[in-house]
Design a protein that fits this description.
Blueprint (H helix, E strand, L loop, with lengths): L22 E8 L3 H12 L4 E4 L15 E2 L6 H9 L1 H21 L8 E9 L3 H13 L5 E3 L11 E10 L2 H9 L4 E2 L6 E2 L3 E3 L4 E9 L12 H4 L1 E11 L6 E4 L5 E5 L2 E10 L7 H10 L4 E11 L6 E6 L2 E8 L5 H16 L17 H15 L14 E3 L4 E3 L6 E2 L5 E3 L6
Parallel strand pairs: 1-2, 1-10, 2-7, 4-12, 10-17
Antiparallel strand pairs: 3-6, 4-6, 5-6, 8-9, 9-10, 11-14, 11-15, 12-13, 13-14, 16-17, 18-19, 19-20, 20-21
Helix pairs in contact: 1-5, 1-8, 2-3, 2-4, 3-8
């Protein structure tokens, strides 16, 4: 069993130069994951001059560890959105995600990234009322779904499920590799300071008219209050030898999710906040279902979660009209990455921000006070080592052998090299 994702063995990502002189551009994109790459690609297609910078290697962070579901079915989000904001916002949520899926279908006509159109299913073995409520809301939004009572997954129980047809799945690194070939990219180029129209590296400057921060977790703290509005969750993922299954599947009971890739079955779940103890049960659970010897890859990924379960895509801050951000995708990164590319390109060209996903919407949610409490408690702890992001005391994860920030989710290896942002240095 290898401790890396299955995608890392499927494609060799091309390399790009390090910035070695000061430059000017219309749009600067910071972050070389799928969100940044899609944003840069969309803007270039529209005729903009675009430069993308990545502090390490493109696709080498969160993107290489994703499961790459492309689905508008996000657990029970539609009933949550209706409860918090009403049917209008639920309709907007559905429309944006369906648009993203159609855009991926268009991309597959030009690029080979193992895109496969397939159904997406959410299911339960216990609480069918939740499934029926979600279907009722989707019916009211005039979106057709199907109820199902069986799965192509052995030893996985189901009482009732809801299925979206015509969704998708893909190989994330093949897509990044294909899109990057047409872009102006600088790797090993870390932005150390961002001003109104200038970004600074250690030696050089990049002047821009607009900037998109697509760094998974926003790294500028003095605007936007993202360190209060976000938290991070870790997912455990394995790939094992298995006959191919058609579709993607998510249990609302156990939190396990499944998808196929060739003759592999990819399974994720047992998510936890970085402030919570490491969970030892995931591999035991999978081994009990399929056998430990079947597992060929094992890895973790990290998702940024918002206060209300809806992403922040729009203006970075009301104080910076030409700064834009895409973050807080709440475990549905590939769908929202595509939405970000379209919405932020529209905004740079003068369209209004979409209220549903505005980063500057109300932050008055219960989770805000939980986030504040976690930050304060761990900042006041008298212990070392401390996170370089906001000097919060770190906790050691004995299972993964990583140091973790319980407040904002930064992770370091045993040598204190940064694995996950918002920290960017030892």
């Amino acid at each position: 069993m290898e401790n890396k994702s299955i995608w890392e063995d499927t494609v060799h990502i091309g390399s790009y130069p390090k910035l070695d002189h000061s430059i000017k551009t219309d749009v600067l994109v910071i972050g070389g994951g799928i969100t940044g790459i899609l944003c840069a690609s969309e803007l270039k297609k529209r005729g903009h001059e675009v430069v993308l910078v990545e502090q390490k290697r493109i696709g080498g962070g969160i993107t290489k560890n994703t499961t790459a579901f492309i689905s508008a079915l996000h657990e029970t989000l539609y009933q949550d959105v209706v409860h918090k904001y009403g049917y209008k916002y639920a309709s907007d949520y559905l429309r944006l995600n369906l648009m993203a899926i159609e855009e991926y279908k268009k991309l597959r006509q030009k690029y080979d990234f193992d895109f496969k159109e397939c159904p997406s299913t959410m299911f339960t073995a216990m609480n069918d009322d939740v499934i029926l409520k979600e279907k009722k809301i989707l019916d009211s939004l005039n979106y057709h779904t199907e109820l199902i009572e069986s799965l192509p997954l052995e030893d996985v129980s189901i009482k009732l499920g809801i299925r979206f047809n015509n969704q998708g799945r893909l190989n994330p690194l093949k897509l990044i590799n294909a899109l990057a070939e047409d872009l102006s990219i600088y790797e090993e180029t870390r932005i150390t300071k961002l001003q109104k129209n200038v970004a600074y590296t250690e030696k050089y400057r990049i002047e821009f008219n607009n900037v998109i921060v697509a760094t998974h977790y926003p790294f500028i703290n003095r605007f936007g209050l993202y360190f209060l509005k976000l938290r991070q969750r870790i997912s455990y993922i394995v790939s094992l030898n298995h006959k191919e299954i058609d579709g993607t599947y998510c249990s609302i009971d156990s939190g396990l999710y499944f998808r196929g890739y060739d003759d592999n079955l990819i399974i994720g779940g047992y998510d936890r906040d970085t402030k919570e103890p490491c969970n030892k049960m995931f591999l035991k659970r999978i081994s009990s279902l399929y056998g430990f010897n079947q597992i060929n890859y094992s890895w973790t990924n990290q998702d940024v979660m918002t206060l209300d379960g809806i992403p922040y895509i729009g203006k970075y801050s009301l104080m910076r009209k030409n700064w834009f951000v895409a973050t807080g995708f709440n475990m549905w990164g590939f769908t929202w990455a595509m939405v970000s590319s379209k919405v932020l390109s529209d905004m740079i060209e003068g369209k209004e921000e979409i209220k549903l996903i505005s980063p500057n919407r109300s932050i008055w949610h219960k989770q805000l006070f939980i986030n504040i409490g976690t930050t304060i408690v761990n900042m006041l702890k008298i212990k070392k080592p401390r996170c370089t992001h906001l000097k919060v005391a770190l906790k050691y994860n004995k299972i993964d052998k990583t140091w973790e920030c319980p407040a904002h989710g930064s992770r370091y290896d045993d040598n204190f090299n940064v694995i996950n942002d918002p920290a960017v240095k030892k």
